[in-house]
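Researcher: Structure prediction, please.
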Amino acid sequence: MADKKYLKYFPLSSLFNTRRTRDIFQVNPTVIPVREEAAESKIQVFDYDLQSLEESLPARITDCYSLRDNQRLSWINIGGIRKADVEAICTHFNIHQLIMEDILSVGQRPKMDEMDPILFCLLNMLYFNERTGAVEAEQISIVLGKDFVISFQEDSKRDVFNPLREKLKIASSKIRQGKADYLCYCLLDMIVDHYYVVMEQLGERIEMLEEKIIHNSNTRSLAEINNLRKELIVLKRNVSPVRELINGFIRSESDLLEERTTKYFKDIYDHIVQANELAESYRDMMMNLQDLYLSNVNLRMNEVMKVMAVVTCLLAPATVIGGIFGMNFDKLPYIHHQYGFFIAVGLMLIIPVWMVFVFRRRGWF
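Model: Predicted structure follows.
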């Protein structure tokens, strides 16, 4: 009955051949996955300079063509990727065919490319799903050109850039005073900063699981350990390559990057290094939780074995006495004595009581 009680929390599919496991590990870079066309596409444009800001929601991608040579800074954010829109805007802004293919790709490793006159980077925005406890990744591509930044998101309904949008509305903000490279820095900085939000939520789950294991280790706890380890794999896979990506911006000699902007990218680099170290610490914590679970299980087993051993020892005198007086011989001590039965039963009780006293004095239980 106990096995059936916990079986619903710990099916074999939760550890082997689950959909989540396949999503994490079934990655083949030689096979080009087919991206489904976004059901909804949203284009948001911020066109600005020091004096003014124009925010708009163009209905068509062709409405953005005039932004290329208007002598102002432009941020074009495209939420929901459609092949025709990507090809159209990339062609108009002279973005290389290889970059276009990366934007349309699925499951790419975070990276940074430099193809004059464009700087391109691809990484993932991370979210934590409170309902499922899963780390969700959304691929975002950022194209930096002369006086423009174009970002391509998979999801048109969520991102981490709302604080940036609010800062753009303030005329005295650094973003309005900076150039396109500073805007690109701000986008990357907000993505990396949001990694810490996800890691904080994962850390809370780990702490709750630790308390649960300490107070009550069961098979469900093992399943939760396994699930959290999978989410940490997702986190580590998305966070670790970003270090190399930011380093590419720091080492780049492109004319699109001003020297004074390099120190800001160095700040992101420090943040991503810390995020990697924190992810490693979480992984070590999960290994420690697994060891703690196994220790608690072994401790509970030892307690059970100790009780069984004590019971066996306490019943041994009664077994011996009963065996002796149960032998089929005519002449046995007290076998015909009128109090022989009571003497035997007394010995069966007194000896175990004395054994309990000795065990307690020695601290065996």
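Model: Residues 262-325 form the longest helix (64 residues).
Researcher: Thanks, that helps.
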